Amino acid sequence: MSEVLVVVEATREFGVKKVTLEMLTLARELGTPSAVVLGGSGAAEALRARLGEYGAEKIYAAEGEEIDGYLVAPKAGILADLVRRVQPAAVLLAGSQEGKEIAARLAVKLDNGILTDVVALDADGTATQIAFAGSTIVKSRVTRGLPLVTLRPNSVNPEPAAADPAVEQLAVAVADTDKLAKVVNRVAEQKGSRPELTEASVVVSGGRGVGNADNFKLVEELADLLGGAVGASRAAVDSGFYPHQFQVGQTGKTVSPQLYVALGISGAIQHRAGMQTSKTIVAVNKDAEAPIFELADFGVVGDLFKVVPQAAEEIRKRK
Amino acid sequence: MNIVVLVKQVPDSGADRNLRSDDNTVDRGSANNVINEMDEYAIEEALKIKEAHGGEVTILTMGPDGATESIRKALSMGPDKAVHVVDDALHGSCAVTTSKVLAAALGTLGADLVICGAESTDGRVQVMPHMIAERLGVAALTGARKLTVEGGTLTIERQTEEGYEVVTASTPAVVSVWDTINEPRYPSFKGIMAAKKKPVQTLSLGDLGVAPAEVGFDGATSAVVEHSKRPPRSGGAKVTDEGDGGVKLVEFLATEKFV
User: Fold this and answer.
1) Contact indicator for B69, B56 with CB cutoff of 8 Å
2) How far is A35 from chain B (nearest CA, A)?
């Protein structure tokens, strides 16, 4: 069977991201998964065991400052060479900012079609995409080149399948034209131990109704009790209650967790665009007419400052 | 500094948006067509740079005749002029071919700096800045929440999952911005009147030396096979809190095995 290249997304703190495990699971349906690690020195060895656990038969690695010290372009260059050499059946990347950007450059380098926000990919190359804020299902195909696809996080259920991959180090020769955007600093902003927003199985979000930044502690508390990530509506972010990287909606992150909890969020179309493909939605809002209740599988009309602490207490009791 | 801002006309993200049933392209008739929201932040950033460092701001749009409306709206914020790439053969173009056309148009404009929104609200694909930079062989600084210009050196703060990256490049470059970067100005009455007289140059594929077969449906590198509306969600149980709302919520979560 042909190789399917899975471009690994990982973080320094948590290692292989869940979307990578989803891609490996999907790749096994299409061919033989080969993971591609593009990062700092030693990255592949550190990730090898985890990638093997989810069925990577082989790992290609390109590592070092030449890769890590510049924005995106060196990774696309290395990947283009690899694709030309191994002629894979498909190339899968994460549907993140960086995944989409690498795929963009790869598409131009190879004059190859690209499909983003894919939630399923058939063996014949037909992809399913979710468009227009979750309202439309699109089936599409790459008509020039191989299926080059970015997978939306939380689309595939990751399933382990043990393999013992060997690491093949790729020659790192980065063209000068791929070294034009230099990363001079990486600054970590406080985030704690919560799962990443787009990957989390549970997301608890707060809106304007939370009232102020301090009250977001309530949202965080419930998120922690449910093992979830914290999100915020645009209204809450614009009001300065919570940082922008946690914004869910049309101009923020799109999330598709098993459970989405909306607290003090009216459910404007801007917000719905980022969360309406969630599996189960629950909402607490004092306005019985709030549009969020049209989406919610379970809604509580009431004061979130009473309902949420009581819910938190009840969860603690049951634990 | 010669700045070009990429502006895309999109169906209003607040309306019910559709794909056409005949050729699977975006239905421009089913919703109001407006400037892609993120592009307004790109225009604002360009105007701020012009105000601080001098130069000229040009709007570049690829789109059908009707996109003129959005071009005038963009000009009313303050840019100097606009270029509209319009050609019937462009209908049905994919992202890869669109980037080819925009890169060709940028080649005629000699920009020091190209600024665009990080994504459009219709496709949300986020690929255009890097595709264009790749074709032009210039740097791409993408996902900026802050942009600093010092001479010919550009520095951005790029939002990431873990925090942010500081990324730097020399001009010429492509920069894409998120809506956290500034607060776009509203067009003034004077601005709206002035926009009517600002030059809008139209360019055809022939002007750009791009063959019709390279774009549109013929040149597309991907195709929509079919599409359908997702069934709308229907609301479930809704209870009014009578002192036990929190408990009831957790009872629901327990039946769904989340607790």
Assistant:
1) no
2) 22
Given an 8 Å threshold on Cβ–Cβ distance, is B220 in contact with A113? yes
Which ranges of chain A have pLDDT less than 50?
none
Which residues of chain A does B168 touch, with a Cβ-Cβ cutoff of 8 Å?
A: 181-182, 184
Per-residue model confidence as pLDDT tens digits over B18-51: 999 999 999 988 889 999 999 999 999 999 999 9
**Which among B18, B61, B13, B5 is positioned nearest to B227, based on CA atoms?**
B18
Query: Considering only CB atoms, which chain B residues are within 8 Å of A236?
Result: none
In the block, tokens 């173009």 appear at: B93
For chain A, the C-alpha Rg in angstroms (whole number) is 21
Burial of A257 (0-12, 13-18, 19+ CB in 10 A): buried
**Chain B, window 32-71: residues with a beta carbon less than 8 angstroms from a chain A beta carbon:** 37-38
Instruction: Check if B234 contacts A (Cβ < 8 Å).
Output: yes
**Which residues have C-beta within 8 Å of that of residue B151, sequence separation ≥ 6?**
none
- Concatenating the DSSP letter of every residue in B166-221 gives EEEEESSEEEEE-TTS--PPPPPHHHHHHHTTS-EEEE-HHHHT--GGGSHHHH-S
